[in-house]
């Protein structure tokens, strides 16, 4: 009986459908196309972007005789994947070695000069040559250079902490050659007190001359007056007073020398 | 100590002045009764006082002792020279007693041995605040007055560089400024101090004041001073003339000149005076300061120059500054060089004892613990033997 068979098949069919539902999960032909993880679209079936696998670092592809200035043309932070050197930095733990370069903060913190290799510098010089003049022919030896343009080189070898790695004194260049405008240095500019040609010298000279005139003793000349021992001591005391400032010692020295100079008991 | 002081102050306020004086006259008996317990009555006087009232005879044996300045001298010589607190003390005690101290003795020794043919030597008293520089200066002025020198005393040079209401353009030199009020006051005091000299010294030039008035050559210096006092406009110029004439004539030997300036660092400092357009005035633009600077130079003979540098009253100088170079600055030092710096320091123990005895004698210290050893130790600690500080402390007791 067909009618009797129909319900049976009808009944069967849902079961088969459910079976088919299970079977659809297994067989890929009947279900809608789903991307596999190995395709280029990086979405997982759960909607979260999948992380692509890390590529091998650039260092593996670098040739030994490559053009290094093109890897580091400018000052750039240390890139462990771009520097083919097996550098280690850090304090080792017990029974360990310094940390490797991958993910090493210490290597990032310090300054690097990877952009200033000799090859790079040579390239810079070549490029700058167009803008330079000839080296003066007369300055052909180091001694001559030092003689005409002496430079003072101060090196500081100490540890210091601060916001910058540069030593601020490195910006100061001292050339020993005196410039024209330095001749206009006045007394107010002097770093330390110089007795010669100072007003103190003038004062003492005048005073002594007046004393000598009062005593009718005009034979002594200016140089002789300035050369006496008392004046020498006075000069020393004034210089120390001016350079060191007032303190008990310098003041008493000054007092004694003036007393002796002016013949006060 | 503080509670005691406040109690005492409140009790002092209750007493009226009449009653206070009454206690004062009863002093000798009370003092005798008090001190019988401790020391013989003569020794306080011996420690703190000396009968030698002539500064010329003061020597090391008088160190620490007070000597009396007669009222006559007070009126003439010290009409404007003494520090204000000392003047109040003189009025209270009805006597002017000055302590003989080592810096002043040193200076007197130099002054006694001055060679008047040589250029005038400059002596500078320096020291911390309240150590007695001005009074040492006054001591030397008293000495010179007794020796019949002409005293040119500027009591406080700082007064000339600040708080001047009326600045006139100088009649003599258009670039400079006159200070008529201060100049006329100073001339009045100068006249009282040196009355007898003013008729003796004759001016050596003719000075024309204005179209109608002039001072002829050969007339006494007193006339110039009178002119300055009467015609206040010309007062500063009169001062300038006085200074010039004195400087010129002191070398001739008729008289000896003492130039005493208190607070000489004002001459080379800054002023607080301004022109009408609010631009500041430099000290050398004030005629008085300009002339005074010439006076303290050592290009004249026949006298001495005694100066003090003080921070009190000075402008734009830190409170703790007391050393000569700090207060004079570079310009001042170069102008005064060479000079003899004399340090005035705090009391030494002997002087401190003497000062306390002097106050006790005059019944200035009314506190019951004042004459005891602990009281003295406390005063010593609080004042650190600084004369000015001690005087201020004792004023409360």
Short précis:
The complex is a heterodimer of chains A (265) and B (397). Chain A is mainly alpha-helical. Helix content of chain A is 39%, strand content 0%.
List keywords for this structure.
heterodimer; A: 9 helices; 0% strand; elongated; disordered N terminus; B: 397 residues; 2 domains; two-stranded antiparallel ribbon; 11 strands; 11% strand; globular; structural constituent of ribosome (chain A); ribosomal protein (chain A); Ribosomal_mS35_mt (chain A)
Structure explained in plain terms:
- The complex is a heterodimer of chains A (265) and B (397).
- With 265 residues, chain A is mainly α.
- Among the domains of chain A are: 64-132, no CATH class; 187-262, no CATH class.
- Chain A contains nine helices and no strands.
- In chain A, helix 8 runs antiparallel to helix 9.
- Chain A is elongated and about 120 Å long.
- Chain B has 397 residues and is α/β, with parallel strands linked by helices.
- Chain B has two domains: 103-341, Rossmann fold (3-Layer(aba) Sandwich), CATH 3.40.50; 350-393, no CATH class.
- In chain B, 46% of the residues lie in helices and 11% in strands.
- In chain B, the strands form four sheets. In chain B, strands 4-9-10-3-11 form a five-stranded parallel sheet, sandwiched between helices.
- Chain B is globular, with a radius of gyration of 23 Å.
- The model of chain B is unreliable at 8-42 (pLDDT under 50).
- Chains A and B meet through helix 6, helix 8 and helix 9 of A and helix 14 and strand 11 of B.
């Amino acid at each position: 009986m067909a009618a009797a068979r129909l319900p049976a098949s009808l009944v069967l069919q849902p079961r088969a459908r459910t079976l088919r539902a299970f079977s659809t999960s297994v067989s890929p032909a009947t279900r809608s196309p789903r991307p596999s993880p190995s395709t280029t679209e990086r979405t997982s079936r759960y909607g979260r972007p999948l992380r692509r696998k890390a590529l091998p670092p650039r260092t593996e592809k670098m040739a030994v005789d490559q053009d290094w200035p093109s890897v580091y043309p400018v000052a750039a932070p240390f890139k462990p994947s771009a520097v083919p050197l097996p550098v280690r930095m850090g304090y080792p733990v017990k029974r360990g070695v310094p940390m490797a370069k991958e993910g090493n903060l210490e290597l990032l913190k310090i300054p690097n000069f990877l952009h200033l290799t000799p090859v790079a510098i040579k390239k810079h010089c070549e490029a700058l040559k167009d803008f330079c003049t000839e080296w003066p022919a007369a300055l052909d030896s180091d001694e001559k250079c030092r003689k005409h343009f002496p430079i003072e080189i101060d090196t500081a070898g100490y540890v210091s902490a601060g916001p910058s790695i540069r030593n601020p004194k490195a910006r100061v260049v001292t050339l020993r050659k005196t410039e024209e405008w330095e001749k206009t240095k006045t007394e107010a500019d002097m770093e330390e007190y110089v007795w010669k040609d100072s007003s103190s010298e003038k004062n003492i000279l005048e005073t002594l001359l007046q004393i000598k005139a009062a005593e009718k003793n005009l034979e002594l000349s200016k140089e002789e007056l300035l050369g006496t021992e008392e004046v020498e001591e006075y000069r020393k005391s004034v210089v120390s007073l001016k350079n060191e400032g007032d303190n008990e010692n310098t003041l008493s020295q000054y007092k004694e020398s003036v007393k002796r100079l002016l013949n006060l008991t | 100590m503080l509670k005691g002081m406040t109690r005492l102050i409140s009790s002092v306020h209750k007493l009226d002045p009449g009653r206070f004086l009454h206690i004062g006259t009863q002093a000798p008996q009370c003092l005798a009764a008090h001190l019988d317990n401790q020391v013989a009555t003569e020794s306080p006087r011996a420690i703190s006082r000396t009968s030698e009232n002539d500064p010329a005879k003061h020597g090391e044996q008088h160190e620490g002792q007070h000597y009396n300045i007669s009222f006559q001298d007070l009126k003439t010589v010290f009409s404007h020279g003494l520090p204000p607190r000392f003047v109040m003390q003189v009025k209270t005690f009805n006597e002017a007693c000055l302590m003989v101290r080592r810096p002043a003795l040193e200076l007197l020794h130099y002054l006694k041995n001055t060679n008047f043919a040589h250029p005038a030597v400059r002596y500078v008293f320096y020291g911390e605040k309240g150590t007695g520089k001005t009074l040492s200066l006054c001591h030397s002025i008293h000495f010179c007055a007794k020796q019949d020198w002409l005293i040119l005393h500027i009591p406080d040079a700082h007064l000339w560089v600040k708080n001047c209401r009326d600045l006139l353009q100088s009649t003599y030199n258009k670039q400079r400024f006159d200070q008529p009020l201060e100049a006329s006051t100073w001339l009045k005091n100068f006249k009282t101090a040196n009355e007898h000299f003013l008729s003796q010294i004759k001016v050596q030039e003719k000075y024309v004041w204005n179209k109608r008035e002039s001072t002829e050559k050969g007339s006494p210096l007193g006339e110039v001073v009178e002119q300055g006092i009467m015609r206040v406009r010309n007062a500063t110029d009169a001062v300038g003339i006085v200074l010039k004439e004195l400087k010129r004539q002191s070398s001739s030997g008729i008289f000896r000149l003492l130039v005493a300036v208190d607070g000489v660092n004002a001459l080379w400092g800054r002023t607080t005076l301004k022109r009408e357009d609010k631009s500041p005035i430099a000290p050398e633009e004030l005629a008085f300061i300009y002339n005074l600077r010439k006076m303290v130079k050592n290009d004249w003979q026949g006298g001495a120059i005694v100066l003090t540098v003080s921070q009190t009253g000075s402008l734009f100088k830190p409170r703790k500054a007391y050393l000569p170079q700090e207060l004079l600055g570079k310009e001042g030092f170069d102008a005064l060089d060479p000079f003899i710096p004399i340090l005035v320091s705090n009391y030494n123990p002997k002087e401190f004892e003497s000062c306390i005895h002097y106050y006790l004698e005059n019944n200035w210290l009314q506190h019951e613990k004042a004459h005891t050893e602990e009281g003295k130790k406390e005063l010593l600690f609080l004042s650190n033997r600084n004369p000015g500080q001690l005087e201020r402390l004792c004023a409360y007791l």
